[in-house]
Amino acid sequence: MNDPSTENQTDQRETILRAFSQAMGDPVRLKIAARLAIQPQSIAELSSSLQLPAEEIRPPLAQLVEIGLARLENDRYQLDNTSLAAWIETVHSGTKQNRLEQEQETGDAFERKTLRDFLRQDGTIKAFPAQEKKFLVVVRYALAAFEPGVRYTEKQVNQLLRRYHPDTASLRRTMVDHKYIARKDGIYWLLDS
């Protein structure tokens, strides 16, 4: 049976993602947000800098204010950085959650169960499994951090793997030992599977 609180969170996230996409999907609103990110501006200043009539600027600007991405202060509009950061975090967490759900659906039942058992809700690794077969499932899951054809320094590899677990050395070493990634002269890259 589905958990109603989880379904409610998913519905809220989808509503937020839809509103953000609509707000940022409009070229005029996106241009307005970009201008306001640089400095607060009045409608007249926005009209001049965007070379658009004020009548075309008012509706998209009003929507940015309505959803909390912009606010009016002393006759000048400014981007609400705190609100924008919250929107971006919501979008990012929604994307991360969708990716996690998709990754957990792929693979066989053993892999899905292993990932459910050893991953937190946010996609980070709770603990390394003692059984090697399960540990390799978790290691392969962390391979999603790497892009094919991209070369990484060891520092970059550690930064990517730290998103999954603080013990980056174990993950990195296992990935190299099992030929998931290659290493030469301090440079790492994903191997074709």
Write the layout of secondary structure elements.
Layout: H1 4-25, H2 27-38, H3 43-50, H4 54-66, E1 70-73, E2 76-79, H5 81-105, H6 109-118, H7 132-142, E3 151-153, H8 154-162, H9 168-177, E4 181-184, E5 187-190
Antiparallel strand pairs: 1-2, 3-5, 4-5
CATH homologous superfamily descriptor of the largest domain: Winged helix-like DNA-binding domain superfamily/Winged helix DNA-binding domain
CATH architecture label name of the largest domain: Orthogonal Bundle
**Stretches where pLDDT falls below 50 for ≥5 residues?**
none
Structure annotation, total helices: 9
Highest CATH level, the class of the largest domain:
Mainly Alpha
Spatial gap, N to C terminus:
36 Å
Q: How would you characterize the overall build of this protein?
A:
The chain has helices spanning 4-25, 27-38, 43-50, 54-66, 81-105, 109-118, 132-142, 154-162, 168-177, and strands at residues 70-73, 76-79, 151-153, 181-184, 187-190. With 193 residues, it is mainly α. The protein folds into two domains: 4-86, Winged helix-like DNA-binding domain superfamily/Winged helix DNA-binding domain (Arc Repressor Mutant, subunit A, Orthogonal Bundle); 109-190, no CATH class. The strands form two sheets. A three-stranded antiparallel sheet has the order 3-5-4. Strands 1-2 form a two-stranded antiparallel ribbon. Strand 4 and strand 5 form a beta hairpin. Helix 2 (27-38) packs across helix 4 (54-66), helix 6 (109-118) packs across helix 7 and helix 8 (154-162) packs across helix 9 (168-177). The two termini are 36 Å apart.
